[in-house]
Amino acid sequence: MRKLPFAFAAVLALPLQSPAPAQAPAQIDVETLQPISGVWSYRAIAGGSEADFIDSAATVRLILRCDQAARTVSIVRTGVPAAAPVLSVWTSSLARSVPSSFLATKELTATLAATDPLLDSIAFSRGRFATAASGAPIATVPATAEPARVIEDCRN
Fold it and tell me: 27 near 89, Cβ under 8 Å?
């Protein structure tokens, strides 16, 4: 039986640590929040589908985008003034902060596996769900069929 070099054996002896889970956002009763006035639109895009929430000023405020090849759904919050480490999401049954990335186009993106329970929570939220990020106010939008359809597209 071969002996492992000391340095390698020492590394194997270290306890495994999993990454720290994202913190839960502050508790908010999403059912008491007033949704932004606007509508959802759904469309097929190359490699998946997308649902855009467009407010009454014709500004896209939130996007759910399916990447079928990667089997991921991205939640894109637009108009965020600066980078933030997480995008907080509240539904009627679940609240979670999701690691995010920031683009120069002022979009904050959180990407989830298509099977993530937070997506079920968005699809079945009672009437609305909300998102927020550091430096950006809470955006509450109606929970309609379009986001649920994008989520379902990514699972098939």
Answer: no
Q: Is residue 26 part of a domain?
A: no
Dihedral of the alpha carbons of 148, 113, 73, 98, in degrees to the nearest 10? 100
Tell me which residue range forms the domain holding 62: 40-155
Residue-wise pLDDT tens digits, 12-31: 333 333 333 445 556 788 88
Asked if residue 86 belongs to a domain, the reply is yes
Mean pLDDT within 61-69 = 97
Rounded Cα distance between 63 and 42, Å, is: 10
CA nearest neighbour of 121 among 52, 64, 55: 64
Quick check: 12 and 4 in contact, CB under 8 A? yes
Per-residue pLDDT of 30-60, as tens digits, reads 888 999 999 999 999 999 999 999 999 999 9
Whether 95 is in a domain gets the answer yes
What are the CA-CA distances from residue 104 to residues 54, 56, 91, 95, 110 (Å)?
20, 24, 28, 27, 15
Secondary structure letter of residue 148 according to DSSP:
H
